[in-house]
Amino acid sequence: MEIFRAIAETNDWYIIAPEISLGILALTILMLDCFFPKLVPAILLIGQAAILGLTIFIFEPLVGSYFSGLIQIGTLSQIMRIFFLLSSILVSYLAYIYFLKQKLPRSEFYVLILIVTGALMLLVESSHFLMLFVALETVTVGLLILVAYCRTSVFSLEAGLKYLILAALSSSLLLFGIVLLYGVGGNPTLPEFTNDAMNFTALGHFIDANPSNLLVKLGIILIISGLAFKIGAFPFQIWIPDVYQGAPTPVTALLAVSSKAAGVVVLINLFNGPFVALQSFFTPFLSATAIITILFGNITAVSQTNVKRLMGLSGISHAGYLILGVVAAFSIQWGNAAVIFYLFTYLLGSFAVFCVMSHMSGVNDADQDLHDYEDLAKNNPILGTTLLVGLGSLAGIPPLVGFIGKLLLFIAAFQAQLYLLLGVAVFGVVISTYYYFGWIRDAFFFVWKDSKDRETEVYHSTKRTPLLTIPDRMVLIIIVLFTLLLGVYQGAIGGLIF
Amino acid sequence: MTHLNPFLLQLSIAFPFVVGLTMFMAGGTKKLSLKCLSFLGFAVPCLIAIWLFFQYQMAEKIDYSYAFFSNLPTGLQQFGISLKLGLNGISLPLYLLAGIVGLAAGLYAINSIAERLHLYLGLLLIMYSGLMGTFASIDVFFFYFFHELALIPTFIMIGIWGGRGRRGTAMELTIYLTLGAMLSLAGLIAIYAVSDIHSFDLITIKNYLAQSPLSYTLQKNIFGLLLFGFGILISLFPFHSWAPKGYTASPTSVAMLHAGVLKKFGLYGLIQIAAPLLPSGLGHWAYLLAILALCNIIIIGLVTMAQRDLKQMVAYSSVMHMGYAFLGIVSASVLGLGGAVLLMFAHGLSVALLFLLGTMVYHRTESYDMNSLGGLSQKAPVLCGFFVAAVFASIGLPGFANFWAEIAIFLGLWQFAPWMLYPAIAGVVISAIYGLRAIANIFFGQPSPQFKERFNQSSIQDISIKEKIPVFILLIALLVVGFWPRSITQPINQTLLDNKVEAILTAQIGVTN
Q1: Of B80, B58, B92, B94, which Cα lies nearest the Cα of B203?
Q2: Which of A161, A204, A420, B281 is found 20 to 30 A from B421 (Cα to Cα)?
Q3: Separation between Cα atoms, residue A176 and residue A168, nearest integer Å
Q4: pTM
Q5: pLDDT tens for residues B368-425?
């Protein structure tokens, strides 16, 4: 009871104002849905924009521990709040497009997006394993409902089931790791033992004193495994293609961007917090993971023709690059900043592509083939350009922002002397040009076809030529402009992050 | 006026880029206004390049003979990256080359009948802007950045407007060149990472490495990365297979810009960055590089002789002539390096001219197959004259810029390894054989049986005024430098002497051998 009283008496609630506002917004939307269902999208947009404004307004580079050490707010977590909010706004936009094509209840979907976003924020702010686990489970349960949201689709249900089983597995691994650390940390025969081994600070002191304890290492390995599931890193990447394909496109985007980013940031938090003493021990372990992840993602993506699977597998390779950055950051001071910058470039590139995918998808959301993109550039130049810019940025082509992200990671890796890892990453980029540019090729290069073949495809092509309203165009143009401008001039965001 | 020059240098990069972006959005406007706008986009940078070329001697210079210096921060100063622009004697000829070939290719494209012309011209303008930026950058990061900016439009242009096999070729070219670009990027990052000064600024790095050179092993490894990375981009012997295919499938303007200018990026990188920074590395790899360059000359030369397709022949010959530029670099002397720079300039003009004239031949005969042509000079005597001049330039006959370049390279090569001179000169004979045979097969004799029917129709016209302008631009530049080589060799020479390139190279190579 003492703890609860202490929490109630401290007036720290304002520190998680964005998360609380997200919760209030979610409840408001549930209410609105009963009385004015037409207002939901507008209120959702205004609410999220207001929360984004609030988050930027209260931004200050303070590092502080709140709620008896449950939550720690620093520059990184505040930047990630902005990241998750941006992602949430774009996912809501994708969901809006998605619901134009599907006959499904809408408001619950938006509510779940908001709750997952709030939980993701708490996840990257947590400095206590209890908090971390609760936030992580909130994210997982929310995502689970979202993945299986399209009840009429077999693919969606299958994806939901797979996600349920594998998420449960990964959560149990994570929990087992936490328990192991807690158990060994409370062992009174060891130096620096602690009563509160779930607290990052206390655990950090304990691990500092016992870096070579086998149980500590085992616990950390299990925790990393749980996170690797979120990030989509080897050997926990195998769920990605099926789940990404079956999930509704907005959820795929949420999984690919927000969920992955949260996993990476938690990894950074852990390795710069409690696990700092074992950085050098885990360098080869993480490097091997990164190498296999990069190779696996890129090589398997080569043969994909379903674009949702392709995005999933290429996302795996991006997870590899991100882990490369995390490892490089062990010895390079600005390495974590480079990872965060890369996450933002990945956000822009991915959402450019996911926006195009949402517009191009038909009624059957799981069936999106490279084939459908033929002649896209001719039929709809705006979508074509957005796709070009998004894929180019993901592939890391100047002058798009993805190049800067990759360059900074590579410089960090070079300075950290991870030559093998760097070589594999460079090789991975070369492979990735095959499928990214193959997609561009399908969208841009006119294919000669027999006129008979063309006629039989009339149905096909009418279905696949979406009409864009003016707000749609605005969104696409804003994403493209940001990708281009940040590629040439990084002044604003560079100043914020570095 | 002179204080405006740095600004003009920036303008020559920004202007075509902005015009190019405008063209993308100008789909609905009239053809004529599109053409006028894009003409401005092509002409302004070329005029600026010529103006700056003549201003260079008088201009105020900073370290390593850089003139027109300007520095614009872009937000990554913490990593020592900022947009530093300037020209020295090595980059000046290439900057001028990019301007001239860009204008010629642009003029040709404006008059072409490409579908969705606004997109085509827009992409070409962005490529042009990237090329101007590559040679004007002092910052190594932007040197690479602009190269990629120029490379990506080629992918789309080949894919949409290319010839036979365009879809596959575009992919192959892009993947191959990305591999080369990534290897050289790794090399450039390596220089940045090991030099401990956290700067991509070439002047700073040069100053620093002059004080404290890298160890032999580091130089060797980094130079190897750069050599093979750039080597792929330049089509060095075993890595050349993308080039003939790519150029054959490219639309003419793209082939002109790519073979004429973009490919020189790698050589420029070796001369401007790799050789002065990593002299021991050059010493280590020189012999292997020389052998590969001779393979370029002899093996690719023989392959060129075997071609029946005119465009293939020009494409292979452009690969072959890269061998001479490499031979200039391995000799590591002012003479050799200067000759290589001059050859890059001359070859860029002559190969662009050959691609241009080859397409004009095709428009008249609808065939690239040299064995099924003949007698074209009766119908198109002026075109024939231009073609003969272009082939002579490519062979390297006196009167054209190529002659001086090859002479300088041969003299430099003599100091390096005299025996290599024999195969190198044999290469000149090979290029004479295929060049002259092409002229004979296409323009002289009687029309072949397949060609006779088309030949007898009166639709074959001689070269028109519109077509003449780009040809004249290229040919005049070749002739001016051919008769007045000092105009261009003086800045090259001066820069190489100022930089004490020879002293650095011989000292370092001497120590390690």
Answers
A1: B80
A2: B281
A3: 12
A4: 0.91
A5: 888 888 888 888 889 999 999 999 999 988 888 899 999 999 998 988 888 999 999 9
Residue B193 in contact with partner chain A when CB distance is under 8 A: yes
Whether A429 contacts A395, CB under 8 Å = yes
Distance CA B215, CA B217 (A): 6
Contact B420, B294 (CB under 8 A): yes
Residue whose tokens read 């439009």 = B153
Contact A429 B152 (CB under 8 A): no
* Token pair listed for B509: 């190579």
Q: Which amino acid is at A314?
A: S
Statement: residue B25 has pLDDT above 70: yes
Residues of B in contact with A488 (CB under 8 A): 74
Q: How far is the C-alpha of B322 from the C-alpha of B244, rounded, in Å?
A: 13
Enumerate the β-bridge partners of residue A72. Answer: A65
Q: Which are the contacts of B234, defined by CB distance < 8 A and separation ≥ 6?
A: B263, B264, B266, B267, B322, B325, B326
Closest residue in B to A430 (Cα) is: B179
- Per the model's pLDDT, the better-predicted residue between B240 and A9 turns out to be B240
Average pLDDT of every residue of chain B: 87
| Residue (of A323, A321, A163, A157) closest to A238 by Cα position | A163
**A427-438 pLDDT tens trace:** 999 999 999 998
- Residues A429, B186: C-beta atoms closer than 8 Å: no
Tell me which chain A residue has its CA closest to the CA of residue B14: A488
Largest alpha-carbon pair distance within chain B? 72
Residue A456 has pLDDT above 60, yes or no: no
Instruction: Give the separation between CA B364 and CA B359, rounded to whole angstroms.
Output: 9
Pair B353, B478: CB distance under 8 Å: yes
Q: How far apart are CA A363 and CA A346, in angstroms?
A: 27
Dihedral (CA of A273, A274, A275, A279) sign: positive
Distance, CA of A209 to CA of A202 (rounded, Å): 11
C-alpha span between B115 and B25 (Å, rounded): 16
Q: Which helix (H) or strand (E) holds A498?
A: none
